[in-house]
């Protein structure tokens, strides 16, 4: 029975990945800071990268679905024997590199350093690493973009956007990302590669939000505002508790963030679904049992 060590197994991507590994007969040791329920074939360890519990001496695969920079640091110093590493980064590594916001540039820089660190350590150990960069994630009711939009829209009964929010997006479902991580584990062509993992449909930001609002009950209306009015609404929302939306993010609503999935389709049959949201995708779902 193959044994996987999964970091971030309780996260949006981590949960469906655990389900997939269990269904395919893998034994799993998963790790996160918050305690989780164990089940047959799945052992949970509790710890932070800065203070990890004792880990298995040897596993067949390590998958990182948590913070990439912390994982890269840990992997660089770890003694564990393992030939196969799969780690999630983000397309933010490119998108935020030239941001006007220094915090976003820092995110991009840490992602870049994490990617380089994982590849360099794997090369030193003659292990095979693959890096996966998702675009905007949805589907688990826990993402910071579409689920947050859905919750705010339900609270307000409407959702404001600036009038020119036409930058194209490729939202990607968490189950498609879990499927991708599982597929690359068995794909030699993916060794040493980095893949963008966009969703299966490219659509304007406004259309993406409209589809989310349309599945809510009752459906909130989309209110398109001239930019100055939208900025005022944003400032008011920040005062009332915050939306998590920065100026750089608002500017990006006009920018296309489009990535090519041809290499992923070619190498491991990546076939992400079109963006067809349902209300349930914006409700939190916690149980692994539900997914297995
Ligand atoms: N969300 C997005 O839209 C998005 C987009 C592109 C790429 N990504 C990347 O995809 C990966 C997975 O994202 P996600 O949204 O599925 O993540 P998530 O839901 O936030 O889950 C993160 C996981 O990592 C664990 N974790 C966080 N900090 C940790 C620490 N210091 N030590 C040990 N475990 C820690 C969390 O569990 P505990 O909190 O219990 O520790 C959880 O299991 C990440 O690398 C993320 O950067 C995300």
From TrEMBL:
Coiled-coil region(s): none
The superkingdom of the source organism is Bacteria
- InterPro entries reported for this sequence: ComplexI_NDUFA9_subunit, Epimerase_deHydtase, NAD(P)-bd_dom_sf
Q: Which Pfam families match?
A: Epimerase
Annotated NAD-dependent epimerase/dehydratase domain ranges read 4-63, 112-195
Q: What protein does this entry describe?
A: Nucleoside-diphosphate-sugar epimerase
Q: Which organism is it from?
A: Agrilutibacter niabensis
